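Appendix B. One record, verbatim.
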Amino acid sequence: MSVRPLDGITVLALEHAVSAPICTRHLADQGARVIKIERPVVGDFARTYDTRVLGQSSYFVWANRSKESLTLDVKHADARPLVNALLERADVLVQNLAPGAAARLGLSFNQLTEQHPSLIVCDISGYGNVGPYRNRKAYDLLVQAEAGLVAATGDGEMMARAGFSAADVSAGMYAYAGVLNALLLRGRTGQGSHIDVSMMETLAEWMGNPMYYTHDGQASAPRSGASHPSIAPYGPMLAGDGRLLLLGIQNEREWHRFCTDVLGDPQLAADSRFCNNTVRTQNRKLLDDKITACFATLTVHEAEARLQEAEIATARINSPADLWQHPQLLARACWTTVVTPAGPIPALRPPAPNNCYEARMDPVPSLGEHTDALLAELGCDRARIAELRAAGVV
């Protein structure tokens, strides 16, 4: 088997929900050993978010493959020696417990760094370790609201959440990048480091364009549904067979070609109401009506063929379910199979494949599946494991 970049790296994960599990799953994809600590009996509460995948949570099977599940009540006095033994073996600690919980458990970076100077500690929280919002609850949609995403999404007067856990995923991906950076830094200095990931800050970074659009007191871009708020034409158009097709014009060269080769109206390109992007966005409704009038004479396949012939960007408006059979994902061999406790499921390979190695795609663990093996690795014999179970430690 080819060497993966994180082979030999051990990650201890005190995690739940989405943000930290997404970070550590990506680390596992690259070869890291991820030991996921879960509460005895109940486990990560994301296990019960829904039952959409063979009776299992869609969130959990997505974010937790290739991990080892260890049930451990980290608040129990008898758990601390086990946690210490795990820390001795760990390169990275990732946690997204409630604000202050890691410190109360003696697991903050400042509490650990003297005994474990090479340990990398990554804290993921809603608003970071300092500031007036530090102790606020920070569920994904709440952070979407605070970071401006809800206000920027929707149509007209109707605001909307993003269609996925944008704040959680942004935090998880920046945590993943932060851990990789910290591992590179440790390779140079030999020292561990602390990473403080805030869902608010990561999503605010992703909101950079809408934020700068309001620079110096200017108005926010209007909510424009599936259309681009500041480029026209750029959005869904209705074909004559009642199906939608999304198209996008990026520059004036494309605009002239669109008018001539798609709409069959070269004079429209020079019309003072549409001759540049600024006036096109001001007259968006009138422009959309003209495009729809042309597309009403075409099926969606005919409209798509014209757009492609004219080299105008276009896309089908797929549902999430359409991704299972998307021809590009199939052609790129993006799908593989992952084992779960309830049976095998299809899974996307990690993005950005590397020609030197295959990403790790190991099973999604059942709750506590690896507890006995890990305890034995830490030096516990069968009798001690039985005692820990009887006491509710594991």
